[in-house]
């Protein structure tokens, strides 16, 4: 690894990484409150909107492997700055697009920028954690969660005060640019290695880490897309209260990540990963077995606590393995894991159609058992 310039102290790099994760979470979540407005603007039905939104996921998924290569060759600072700029430039187009084709095109570009940001901040976090020689990855991911809460809240608040979508995103862009200017200069500049290959096919432990990341993201995606429907169908809960399960899940995940670094420092990554995965599996069990609302809600909270530190630990393991360059490994497990978010809702929907939603959640619960079963891989890193 090439030596970092003296001007970029470790403390500055840690703070800058936290800001970068916050920016990534904020810009991603800012789009969520704008989706209903885009649908109304195009007068699109749900089927058409679903196909349009798929462009975002495709852009992210295709860009993730490439962003790992670019970060390894040109450094995280440059790629993160360019990717953030691409996202900010695309935001006004998203609120002005009035046809499905134009919105899908801009969503593909927006997704590519978000995908690059996601990979690069994790590559940077792995490098900073190595330099710090102490667990700090979970705290970085907590800032991503907090940024997501801030992004959706800010946009929703500005829209509620009567601002137009265009003016809302312009104000958001101005704020992000100011934060980016105070962040980019403190990010590590040097690439991982001057002789990093342009492409290495994922193999061995990287594939296994990617598979575990896929399961973790699949479990998270199920909470996002199906928890409300499960609550309303199993407990006859009013539709306006359907989001309470996901709120508990998200709050538990944020709290878990804020405390994750301290837990890892005390108990070690292996112990935290093992018990967290067991808690997540047990939480899913409560969700699908219990017929009582409060037990189901407790299950959602347990799933959030359990999943909170799994992905950060997997990213750390990817950065520490010796099978392939760390930047490319992080990009690889990001791509494999993110496909869980893309494919998960469709998989659960298909199983729910053939059997039941509880049956679909049972399948996810069974898949979750691979996390504790293969937790020993974390001990080896």
Automatic annotation (TrEMBL):
GO molecular function annotation: transmembrane transporter activity
Keyword entries, A-Z: Membrane, Plasmid, Transmembrane, Transmembrane helix
PROSITE patterns per UniProt: MFS (PS50850)
Domain of life: Bacteria
Location(s) in or outside the cell: Membrane
Membrane spanning residue stretches: 20-38, 50-71, 78-97, 103-121, 142-163, 169-188, 200-219, 239-258, 270-290, 296-315, 327-348, 354-374
Subcellular location, principal: membrane
Membrane topology, record value: Multi-pass membrane protein
Signal peptide start and end residues: none
Entry protein name: MFS transporter
InterPro entries the record matches: MFS, MFS_dom, MFS_trans_sf, MFS_Transporter
Chain ranges of the Major facilitator superfamily (MFS) profile domain: 13-381
Gene Ontology cellular component list: membrane
């Amino acid at each position: 690894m090439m030596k970092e310039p003296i001007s970029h102290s470790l403390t500055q790099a840690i703070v800058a990484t936290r800001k970068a994760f916050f920016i990534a979470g904020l810009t991603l979540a800012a789009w969520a409150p704008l989706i209903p407005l885009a649908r109304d603007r195009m007068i699109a039905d749900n089927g058409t909107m679903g196909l349009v939104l798929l462009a975002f996921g495709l852009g992210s998924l295709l860009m993730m492997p490439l962003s790992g290569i670019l970060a390894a060759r040109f450094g995280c600072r440059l790629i993160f700055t360019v990717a953030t700029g691409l996202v900010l430039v695309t935001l006004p187009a998203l609120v002005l697009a009035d046809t499905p084709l134009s919105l899908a095109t801009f969503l593909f570009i927006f997704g590519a920028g978000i995908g690059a940001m996601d990979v690069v901040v994790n590559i940077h976090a792995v490098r900073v954690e190595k330099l710090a020689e102490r667990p700090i990855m979970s705290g970085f991911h907590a800032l991503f969660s907090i940024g997501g809460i801030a992004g959706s809240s800010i946009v929703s608040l500005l829209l509620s005060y009567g601002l137009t979508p265009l003016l809302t995103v312009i104000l958001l862009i101005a704020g992000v640019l100011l934060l980016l200017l105070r962040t980019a200069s403190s990010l590590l500049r040097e690439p991982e290695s001057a002789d990093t290959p342009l492409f290495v096919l994922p193999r061995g432990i990287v594939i296994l880490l990617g598979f575990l990341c896929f399961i973790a993201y699949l479990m998270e995606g199920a909470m996002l897309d199906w928890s409300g429907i499960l609550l309303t169908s199993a407990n006859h809960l009013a539709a306006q209260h359907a989001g309470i399960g996901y709120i508990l899940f998200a709050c538990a995940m944020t709290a878990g990540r804020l405390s994750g670094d301290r837990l890892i420092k005390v108990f070690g990554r292996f112990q935290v990963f093992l018990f967290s995965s067991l808690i997540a599996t047990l939480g899913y069990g409560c969700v699908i077995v219990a017929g009582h609302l409060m037990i189901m809600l407790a299950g959602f909270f347990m799933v959030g606590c359990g999943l909170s530190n799994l992905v950060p630990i997997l990213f750390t393991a990817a950065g520490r393995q010796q099978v392939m360059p760390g930047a490319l490994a992080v990009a690889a497990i990001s791509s494999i894991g993110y496909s869980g978010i893309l494919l998960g809702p469709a998989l659960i929907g298909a199983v729910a159609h053939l059997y039941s939603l509880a049956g679909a959640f049972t399948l996810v619960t069974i898949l979750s058992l691979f996390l504790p079963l293969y937790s020993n891989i974390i001990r080896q890193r």
